[in-house]
Structure formats: structure tokens, C-alpha cells
């Protein structure tokens, strides 16, 4: 057994005992031949591993901005009142409370995970009932919520690509009529893009993996859906897991890979067993295993690897580090994953939605896909719409659909939309002069998260939530991201206190540029986006926040800070 089993070993102790003791670490160290120090460094990297004992019930309450506008503070207070514990401190034998970032429930907020089971649409009363029931010894599973999202079809439903009737094995049967080269060509011809947010051409990726000779290759399904506001991949696994699995099998057939791994975010472990059941059905139908559907040497197997709570692991390079049993820190790589990926073997990493589309393209034919959407982004796309809308949920939209249509009466039914965040905190905010912009490669792309805020929402509150998120999730290996996101968060807080000047706006832009240009991975390259877009697009709002008279106030404030900092510096140097 090697260190690629490390996360699984840690999970066994975490789930059984609620924490990972020194004794457990020592045992794992001997078993996997990994030093204790290294194991501890891995444990401390992930949100859901604990080294101190926790209560019987571990409660993770989502603190995303959508949760915030739907009543997070009141729910948080209710949890503290009913349990008698405080968030992010040692709990008692019964309860431990922790904040966590988006858990993929933005259409049902506020939401929490209790021992990794979902509890949605929380209110203080609901919390009171849940905690009282747990204290009475009621079964946690019986209390948990059903988490199905509302699926809203393409406006012309019959044209839907994803949310249409599913027939198990259909895409594999169709795919086997073609050679691996032809499959790659079909995906390339369809111009399928990576739909997790990177929008990298999928055909290119598959072709590169196929052409790299190796005894072993891997297909990884990236189910680490961590961008706040997105929940489409959860819905895909809950409604159409077979479609995703078939996409993996087809990718294996096209590239010559025989092993697939679903990297499932820890927040979604409550449906891991359901995916395992579907995999068993696939095995029985000879859609997995050896000589699939009688085709000699077409072997493919899939296993599930649980993540452990880290946004940055959604990036392919960090995800591979995590799979290899390390901290999920994006390395400086000179090779693409399709050449040296998991275990240094050619590897395709595709998002859940991308694989589902690959399967449909083979099933329906690339011409069907090309008949919709735009020139550069054909087909449809799944969006997770949440916030100030009457109908939150998953929408399958045609690429090229305008923002105004998404907000309209036929679709999400937004109420006084004002600030729209397209593609999550790492994406771009849009003001009401831009509502005719279209979701497509030619205009504004969206990885899946589409958050709507009305005029009653405070923009600085939204931006502060985003910046706190990035500050928390930065893995810290590069200084611009580690320090820069901290500085930008402080700038937002300063503005909220009414102490900023125009100079701060300029500094925000400069810091934003530095972070974007000098960070190693996508987190740092995108974390300042919302803030630097917002200060330009919502000038009226920011002008109100920074009256010209504040220039004097700002100088005075900075002087005080400087004197205090200098005093502590002198004290530090004297001790
Ligand atoms: Fe880590 Fe941020 Fe650097 Fe990415 S940009 S490697 S998250 S410190």
C-alpha cells in the first residue's frame, strides 16, 4: 500500500472517531511508510480532518454569500443557542460547530451538513427542532433533508441535451461503432469545452492523452465542485449518474485508459453509496470490467476517491496532488496532466458536466450538439441559479442565451436584479447596463454559478464574503495570493467602516493586478476579479462609499495605524 491511500486511511479514522489521534497517525505512518510530519501536514491542509476530539455530531454550516442573504446569521445563532457551543471552537461531547464554504446547496440555503448529511432551508425554528431531536436520540438519517434541486429545462424542452430521457449504456453502444480516433474526432468536431470553468477544448485533451504512449493511463472525473453558488454537478450525480459514468468509459475507450477515478468532494459523500450502486449495476451489465460489451481488451474500472475539503483541489494539478496523498497545493508543473498526470502517467481530468456532455454527444451525434449554441460554444450548458430569484435551480440553457432571459419571467424570475455574479466569486460581476450580454465564449462564459442580488443587498458585503473565501482557501504557497488576498479583504473592511479614499481604490486595482499576474494557480489568478470589476462597474455605489472628504479621514486613520504598528514593532524588537 502506498501513500495514494492516505486520504482514505485518514477518512476511516475521521469518520469512526470524529478525529485522527496521534496513535492513528503513527499507525498510518507505519502502514504507508510516510513520515508522521508529512501526515500531519496533510491533515492540517484539509478542512474536514480534525486532530482534536470532536462531538458526536459535527455540524458544518455554510457561510457563503447566498447563505448569508437567506438568513445565515440567525441560523448560526440558533445552533449556538440550542447546542450551547460556539462556532469554530472546541465543542462538547455531543456537538462541534464549524463554518464551512459553499456546500453545493445554494438553491436551498441556509444549509448545513451534520455528520456529512444535508440539512437545508434552515430557520431558527428548524434548528431548534433538529437539535432537540438529536438530544432525544432520534436517528440523524431520518432528520436529514432531501436535496433534489429543481431542474428547469431549456426553453424549448425537447431540444435539451442533458435533461432528456436516459437509457443506460446507449452512448457506449453508439461509441463502440467507432474507433477511438473517431470518438476523439467527434468530440473535437463538437467543440466541446471543459465546463467546470476552464473551457479547455476536450478533444485536444483526449487526443493528447491518447497519443502519449504509456502502460497505464487514467481518466479522472473532477467532482470537486467548490465554486460558491454552483450545484449543477451535484444534481447531475443525483439525477443522471450513469451519464457521467458513461462519459468516463468513453474517455477511457478513446484514450486507452483502463482506470477511472471519481474525485468526489467530501461535502457530497452522502450520495457516494448511490454512485457505488450505479457502478455495480454497470458492472453487472458488463459496461464496466473486462472486455466491455464483448469488445476484446476494452477494459475499464472506476473507483471513488473522497476529497477532504479544499477549494483549490478543484484545479486539476492540485487534485492530482491530493489523489497522490499530499497537500492539495498546485505544484509548479512543466508537463501537462495528459503527459505526466496521476502517478506520472497520462491522465485526463474532466469535470462532471463535461463528461455528461461527452456521453450525449456520442449518443446523439455531434451535429445535434452543433445545431445549438454559438459558433465558438455550441450546444447547451447547465447553470446553477440562486439568490434573489423566485425560481432557483439548475437550468439547461442554450449557449448564447442573454442574461436578461435568464432573469426573466420564463426562467429564474429575478426580483429587482442589480448585481449579478457570473461564474462564482472567481468570475465577473455584471451591472444592469450589461443584461443583454450573452452566456457564451464570444461574450461572457459561466462555469455554472449564476448568483443574483437585488438592490437591497450591500455590494461591499458580497465582496467581503468573496474575499474572505479566497483568503481562507488560498493554499499559501505563493506570497502574492497569500498576502494579497488578505490585503484586499482588509481594504473591503476598511471601506465598510467608511474610512477609505480614492487611493484605496487605486491600490485595490494595483494589488489585483499583482495577484493575478504573479500567482501560481487559478485561485490567485482569479480571486481579485469580482472586486476589481465591481469598483469599475458600480462606480456610483463606490463614490457614495468614498466621499471626497474622506481623504483627510484616511490620512488620519493611516497615521494611527502606522504609530501603533511602529510601537508594536519596537516592543517586539526589545523582547
Ligand atoms: Fe496556492 Fe494561491 Fe498560489 Fe494557487 S495562487 S498555489 S492557491 S497560494
Automatic annotation (TrEMBL):
It holds the Pfam family 2Fe-2S_thioredx. Keywords: 4Fe-4S, Iron, Iron-sulfur, Metal-binding. The keyword Acyltransferase does not apply. Transmembrane segments: none annotated. Coiled coil: none annotated. Residues 460-505 form the NADH-ubiquinone oxidoreductase 51kDa subunit iron-sulphur binding domain. InterPro entries: NADH-UbQ_OxRdtase_51kDa_CS (IPR001949), Nuo51_FMN-bd (IPR011538), Nuo51_FMN-bd_sf (IPR037225), NuoE_N (IPR041921), Nuop51_4Fe4S-bd (IPR019575), Nuop51_4Fe4S-bd_sf (IPR037207), Thioredoxin-like_sf (IPR036249). SUPFAM superfamilies: Nqo1 FMN-binding domain-like (SSF142019), Nqo1 middle domain-like (SSF142984), Nqo1C-terminal domain-like (SSF140490), Thioredoxin-like (SSF52833). Belongs to the complex I 51 kDa subunit family. This is NAD(P)H-dependent oxidoreductase subunit E.
